[in-house]
Amino acid sequence: MPEPVVKIRDLRFARGNRLIFDGVNLDIYADCVTAIMGPSGTGKTTLLKLIGGQLRPLSGSIRVYGEEVPHLGRQALYRLRRRIGMLFQTGALLTDIDVFENVAYPIREHTRLPEALVRDLVLMKLEAVGLRGAAQLMPGQLSGGMARRVALARAIALDPMMVLYDEPFTGQDPISMGVLVKLIRELNDALDLTSVVVSHDVAETCAIADYAYLLSDGKVVEHGEPDALRESSSDWSQQFLKALPDGPVAFHYPAVSFRDDLLQGGQR
Amino acid sequence: MNSRTIEIAVGLFVACGLAALFMLAMQVSNLASLGGDGDSYTVTAAFENVGGLKVRSPVTVAGVRVGRVDAIDYDTSAYEAVVTLRINSAYDAFPDDTSASIFTAGLLGEQYVALDPGGSMDNLAQDGRIQLTQSALVMEQIIGQFLYSMADKDKE
Amino acid sequence: MLDAIQRLGRVTLGFFERLGRGHLFLLQVLVSLPGIVLRPGLVLRQMYSVGVLTLVIIVVSGLFVGMVMGLQGYNTLVDFGAEESLGVLVALSLVRELGPVVTALLFAGRAGSALSAEIGLMKATEQLSGMEMMAVDPIQRVIAPRFLAAFLSMPLLAAIFSAVGVYGGWFIGVGLLGVDDGAFWAQMQDKVDLYDDIYNGVIKSIVFGFVVGWIALFEGSDTLPTAEGVSRATTQTVVHSALVVLGLDFVLTALMFGD
């Protein structure tokens, strides 16, 4: 088995007094699509920010391409980030410049290429996500799905080795969801990328993932190939993957018994 | 908006701002009337009392402004105030027996130094000293003297 | 009782924590200032939105403030037969106080709140985070040019305000009320000192530009990334800027003009 490109060991992270990760172990291998799934609020986005070095963990090790991210200085961190593209949930396009300039932005910031070459590169990336025709639009004129595709073009503008996707399918109609699913898989294979998809859209994510992790309550509950996970014996995994309304995760938020609550008579 | 328009607008803005600063300096303030501090020389004059004279108060001759007060110090050995006058070099021919007086512009106006040229053949030079001085009139003293003389009259 | 004391303690701690964050933020901005010398285009664009777009309100307010001063000053001075000092009155109050202070207040309302809202929204829509992940330092690319633009624009705006105001006072005093034109300017030139008044006024406006830019950008980037957070940041920018400008004005005035 080759060495993983991202290797997380005993990761602990807290926000305020709330422990978000408590001993997470996770490996991501090159050229694979790795899915990280879990209910809302389990800190999936936080995990991506930890990998990208935007947040620092309480303790534990996060190794990305052999570098210990929490210990990197600014310069080294920025050098590492150039090899990582990230697709934000909202797209995070710069709203004051048009689509073309958005995709050109990382290229202009990090290279000194002649204008003609920048243009070629940008059009190439936009063509890859099928939005070359939208180059002159402003981000405000794009639909949510298009904005995400533009952001994807921008994320791959510098030919990164790894792309992190933060909830790429949330709030998409079936067509743009299908487009994004297809894009993620195709780009992964065509560009020899390593992809990390954070999502709670089980069906779509499982369809393209080579390997999946299930997170809950700050821990990795289960991991394995998507098909194997579906056959898992764990009640929780069954409930999550098959979207059952009741199970280990109760339908009711924890409360005193309904009878007691009613009998309290007017007091809140 | 294209960048040319922005550049022109910003250029105009900066030009307006600098023009306003220039206008304030030349038109509103005393920069023009001072003619710069480079072309000037200083002389000193000792007064028993400078009253309300301040640094930058005007120095005039025959009502024409020729300079300003540069510094006011107290001479601890002579028990006198030493006033340094900075005078524009255009007016460099004051006889060395010129006298200096501190007057008040109007009843409540500010105080200024008035020079009164004498008849000597030699002129005041840089760092020269004006010998003849007349102190500021202090209102309380005048009133005091007035009351005193009234009292004397009553006795007669 | 204990609750009240605890609340007081929490508020105090919160205040100092925020103050500390604000200073760290300023330090980061100042450190990255030299870097933007290489990117004058970024500053130019911000000078446009911060300076040029504020120009109209500055010119109009300056004109009216000057005219009101002319009118009020004339009515007061004419009782003492000193209406020729109108120029001095108008020019001194504009150059020393009203120019820098009113410009700073208007600037906080017009440009400062816009800066806060813009930065807050960029944060809320993850644009700043996105830049960071693209290995682009948002402090250097987004914050520093805006800070520099505010810092450079303020003295220019204040000078324009004062200059327009002086002409406003002149228009009312000389043009409408019949003060002698020569006396108006001559007395003004006699009493307004280049160093004491104009230079100190410019220093004031530079300090205000620094402070308002700092507050606006800090409020924007320290906001919660929600609609409520952004609106709160915008309001706080105006309120805090106004308070700090007025407070600092007192301190600066005491230092500069208090013999």
What does this entry look like structurally?
The complex is a heterotrimer of chains A (268), B (156) and C (259). With 268 residues, chain A is of the alpha/beta class. Helices cover 36% and strands 23% of the residues of chain A. Chain A has ten helices and ten strands. In chain A, the strands form two sheets. Chain A has a six-stranded mixed beta sheet, sandwiched between helices. Chain A has a four-stranded antiparallel beta sheet with strand order 2-1-4-5, with no helix packed on it. In chain A, a hairpin with a 2-residue loop joins strand 4 (59-64) and strand 5. Chain B is of the alpha/beta class. Helix content of chain B is 30%, strand content 33%. Chain B contains three helices and eight strands; from the N terminus they run H-H-E-E-E-E-E-E-E-E-H. In chain B, strand 3 (64-75) and strand 4 (80-88) form a beta hairpin. Chain B is elongated. Chain C has one domain. The longest helix of chain C has 39 residues, at 86-124. Chain C is elongated and about 65 Å long. Classes of the chains: A alpha/beta (268), B alpha/beta (156), C mainly alpha (259). Chains in contact: A-C, B-C. Chains B and C meet through helix 1 and helix 2 of B and helix 2, helix 5, helix 6 and helix 7 of C.
User: Strand content of the residues of chain B, in percent?
Assistant: 25-35%
Largest sheet of chain A: 6 strands, mixed
Helix content of chain B: 25-40%
Order of helices and strands of chain A: EEEHEEHEHHHEHEHEEHHH
**Structural domain count of chain B:** 2
What is the tally of beta strands of chain A? Answer: 10
Distance between the termini of chain A: 58 Å
Say which CATH homologous superfamily of chain A is assigned.
P-loop containing nucleotide triphosphate hydrolases
Cα gyration radius of chain B (Å): 23 Å
H/I helix tally of chain B: 3
What would the average pLDDT of chain B be, to the nearest integer?
Answer: 81
Count of the separate structural domains of chain A? 1
As laid out across the biggest beta sheet of chain A, the strand order is 6-7-8-3-9-10
Instruction: Name the biggest interface.
Output: B-C, 28 and 32 residues
Q: Would you identify the CATH architecture of chain A?
A: 3-Layer(aba) Sandwich
Report the end-to-end length of chain B measured between terminal Cα atoms. Answer: 93 Å
The structure class of chain A reads alpha/beta
**How would you describe the shape of chain A?**
globular
Oligomerization status of the protein chains: heterotrimer
Strand order of the largest sheet of chain B: 7-1-4-3-2-6-5-8
